[in-house]
Amino acid sequence: MDGGARPGGAAGQSREYKLVMLGAGGVGKSAMTMQFISHRFPEDHDPTIEDAYKIRIRIDDEPANLDILDTAGQAEFTAMRDQYMRAGEGFIICYSITDRRSFHEVREFKQLIYRVRRTDDTPVVLVGNKSDLTQLRQVSKEEGSALAREFSCPFFETSAAFRYYIDDVFHALVREIRRKEKEAVMAMEKKSKPKSSVWKRLKSPFRRKKDSVT
């Protein structure tokens, strides 16, 4: 098994990333996942089915075992959804550029993440799929970019049919998870270190007392 270590884990452990696909039904979540996993575009798929996929790859020369949950296309809150929202480490929120309603539903999925996790710092990548269907476009690329800036997350327009930018999406999410983990570790280390100014204030009275004695 490839070597890799989760922050704080033992050396040699393989790092697993739990990723969750979110988005309205019919936007192409399953097609994106299948293209990423097997380089195959599914002709038929039931959008009400949830499925999980695993793949081992290297990203930035580091091993990564991806556990991808492809969810059904409803934004309603359920006990099962609560469970995988808590377990997921990063989320890909998808819409179709040919379906403005699916674009509006992106906010519902983002709010659902916050409702469960109670933080805006969860790693997210925003995706506008079906970019090959330019003649049917209902959502401009600028609108997608603006929403991604609001979410402070990476944004891609993809085509699952032609496999455009599919790998980039999953790689970007893993990078977001790694970046936020490193930031969290650095923040903890910084918090645990005593501030030099405090030590100076504590030491200065003793230094003055010692000088007066000598």
UniProtKB/TrEMBL annotation:
One Pfam entry name: Ras
Organism field: Caloenas nicobarica (Nicobar pigeon)
The organism's place on the tree of life at top rank: Eukaryota
NCBIfam families in the record: small_GTP
EC number: 3.6.5.2
Chief localization: membrane
CDD domains, alphabetized: Rit_Rin_Ric
GO biological process, alphabetically ordered: signal transduction
Protein name from the UniProt record: small monomeric GTPase
InterPro entries for this protein: P-loop_NTPase, Small_GTP-bd, Small_GTPase, Small_GTPase_Ras-type
